[in-house]
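name: query_chain
kind: protein
chains: 1
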Amino acid sequence: MEIYEAIRHLKEREHLGQRDIAKRLKISRNTVAKYWDGETVPWERKEGTGKTCSVITDEVKEFITECLSIDEESGLKKQQHTAKRIYDRLVDEKKFTGGESSVRRLVAELRNRPGKAFIPLEYEPGESSQVDWGEATVYISEEKIKINIWCMRECFSDDFICQAFYRQNEESFLEGMRGGLEYFEGVPRRIIFDNAKVAVKEGFGLHAKTTDKYYAMSAHYAFEPVFCNIAAGHEKGLVEGLVGFVRRNTLVPIPHVESIEELNALLLAASKKYQNHHVEGKPAAVGEMTRLYKKKMIPLPPYRFDTSRTQQMKVDDFSLVRFDHNKYSVPYTLVGKKVTVKGYGNNIKIIYENTIAAEYVRDYAHSATHYRLEHYIDLIEKRPRSVYNAAPIKNTVPPMLNDFLSKLNNPKDVIKVLRLYLEQGDKICDLVSSCATYEALSAKLIDVDLPKAVRYDEEIKVSAPNLKCYDKLMRIVNR
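structure:
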């Protein structure tokens, strides 16, 4: 623009010729000629001549068209030809010698995809909530794992709640649903979800049939389950990007937590913090709008829906209960008895006569066995010769303590050390390296009560004596 301005000024105001202008501005005479009389301006481009690149032959164009047709027939949006892939195939299969940019222009022209248009939606308070799954990477007990994030968003206010689960199964889905309804302190009239198997038994969209458990939940909480059409994420667009938002704003940097419960506490804090946010286009902050939707919600029923997968199992001779390909120990006194196993998204509860006999973090591996030493210690004491090979000891006691136990010759001393371990925890593991016997270890655990020095918080003040009474007494005596 500056060059154009200078050329026009020097011609019209100073009446210089093209050669003189080119010398003064140190530019090509062709450039001066181009802008000389103002017929051509720099802010407008002339349309192309319409000539096609000579390397784009009819054979090349036919090949590109065929690639795009195959993509359309397959219907796989995530496995389609890119312009780069088409170019690579042309080079390999057709010995194409043209440039990649020529292929890119033709691919864009042939696709000619129109932009997607969406209808702006507006929701009433308590009308709808949307639900979706996503994934994220975290460190739990310093182990890097991929976890699943379940999200629910209230459509009127944009308020949301997220929970982390090890798996996207029916138990986790129902547990997330119940947690979401309790977080919002009420039930919307509709809950919108996709066609995942955790909620849909068969069909899709308007023709979807809910699973028995999800149907029972919708009946109990009196909401209408609504399912999206296939590949129609825009039908639950409010929740679609929520997982990415949570990943970027809560899980960066990657959190290091000790348990999935600690991670869920982190996610809950992020949800509550978001209530201070003011969404563009909304009349008030999220927290202020929550008061409006809560008044319109269906009240929560008194009975808390059981989201678990429940089974009745018999405890085997090794005091183990099988659930979902794995085994979990219970107190040995329950051998041969029927117990109730409740599998939730992230944990397992084993119940006998309305009392929780054992509780575990749910393991999604196969053929794993989980022992608790306290379930077997009384039985081991009755059969002390088992101490050196007992699986509940080998699989629960830390390696350092296990080495110490293997050096003890008396099985009864082994049992005494195990009881100390159950009482004191890992504290004794720091002591065994300097001990050779049970007596030496127990001596180190005995607290000796030493006399303690008396300390006063304030200095003791002594008042000066009043001797006037003694003077009076001496005068009486002298009389």
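note: The chain has a mean pLDDT of 88.
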